Amino acid sequence: MKALQILGIGSLFFCLSTACSQQERFYETGAYLLGTRLAIKILPVSGRTVEKDAAHLLKTIRKEGALLDSNSAEGIFARLEKNASYLWADESERQLVLPALKTSLALARRTAGAFDPALGSLTQLWGFSSLTPRQLPPTAEELQQARERSGYTRILSFDTSGVRVLPRTRIDLGAIAKGILADRAATLLRSWGYRQGLLDFGGDILLLGEKINAPWRVAVRHPRQGGRWWGIVHVRDLAVVTSGDYERYFVFEKRRYHHLLDPKTGLPARACVSVTVVGPLASLADALSTALFVLGPERGLPLLAREFPDYQALFILENAEGELHEERSPGFSSLTGWQPSSQQDGH
Ligand code: ADP
Ligand code: MG
User: Which regions in the chain score pLDDT beneath 70?
Assistant: First the structure.
């Protein structure tokens, strides 16, 4: 992630529009949460104290983020892995984690398993979220063992009392958690009466309404040239989410190993360099960006059109010579007012 830059915020921002002075009207805050930098902008409304609401929002996101965290040694998913069953400790767990599992399982089925919420043994083996990431690929035996413990069909059941899995199954919602939290944060903001704002969960971006009399402009990062962008989307009331191979990776024997795994092989998926998904829900866009990255455009584009017609995607691909090119779903340009960067020079 972090593939996206919202044009106009903090250090990531630059001012392209005439609305620069208007920007000051937005209340801005941020925090380091969920292993990433969170940036929030909210247009104040009368009758509410935006500072107080933003603080409440951040507190809620922090709490919910901890519940969905797959890497926490004390967390729900660590305990589930150990005991093969977990009973919800309270209502807040039930109300957050149960629907998160339901959505994730449904998406695993609808993406032909390309998005898989039970890859935790594999993702831990690769260790990209670990504080001391490995610099060598795992051995064939390590990989085989982790594959045997992975896969969403190992989730046996979940209901209002708890969740059951086959022994040693580790759930990892890393590919959807930020999207879920962004959707929930937006619902909370709307319930308080806010209508315009921006939630940037380190690249999972959700826009409320429009900016000031104009759509939000979000830059898609150039995947091989830091600080440059590939193009710009113009959106209102939509999520823009990117999964890319350039944030968490290592290079071994001239090959890039990154954190987006093909559930079929347990290895980093090779089809794409980055995938940006635009659509109404951040949660779906998040899971889809990962799934489409695994599937690549050949399999991903038909699936997107058939199963998720409200979502559009931009694939950035690399040929054997290291040259980049893009493929877009048919409705991507009209949904986003796609503006390619003149700096798309292929390297
Ligand atoms: P980021 O973590 O950079 O925001 P993603 O939303 O694409 O990117 O999520 C990647 C994370 O999801 C990985 O770090 C890993 O924990 C998990 N993951 C990796 N491959 C898959 C997959 N095929 N399906 C579901 N989760 C995955
Ligand atoms: Mg994702």
Answer: 1-24, 343-347
Among 115, 116, 119, residue to substitute to test ligand 1 (most atoms within 8 Å of Cβ): 119
CB under 8 Å to 245, separation ≥6 — which residues? Answer: 223, 256, 258, 260, 268, 272, 273, 274, 293
Burial 309-333 (b: 16+ CB within 10 A, else e): eebbbbbbbbeeeeebebbbbebbb
The pTM score is 0.93
Q: What is residue 343's predicted lDDT score, i.e. its pLDDT?
A: 54
Q: If you compute the radius of gyration of the chain from its CA atoms, what whole number of angstroms results? A: 20
Residue 294 Cα to ligand 2 midpoint, Å, equals 11
The 8-class DSSP code of residue 72 comes to -
pLDDT for position 118 = 98
Using a 6 Å cutoff on CB, does residue 170 contact ligand 1?
no
Pocket test for ligand 1, best of 260, 286, 288, 299 (most atoms within 8 A of CB): 260
Side-chain-side CA neighbours of 19 within 13 Å: the count stands at: 16
Does residue 286 have its Cβ closer than 6 Å to ligand 1?
yes
Which single residue is written with the structure tokens 């009466």?
A: 193
Element (H, E) at 105: helix 91-110
- Alpha-carbon 337 to chain mean position: 22
Of 90, 56, 57, 62, the C-alpha closest to 76 is 90
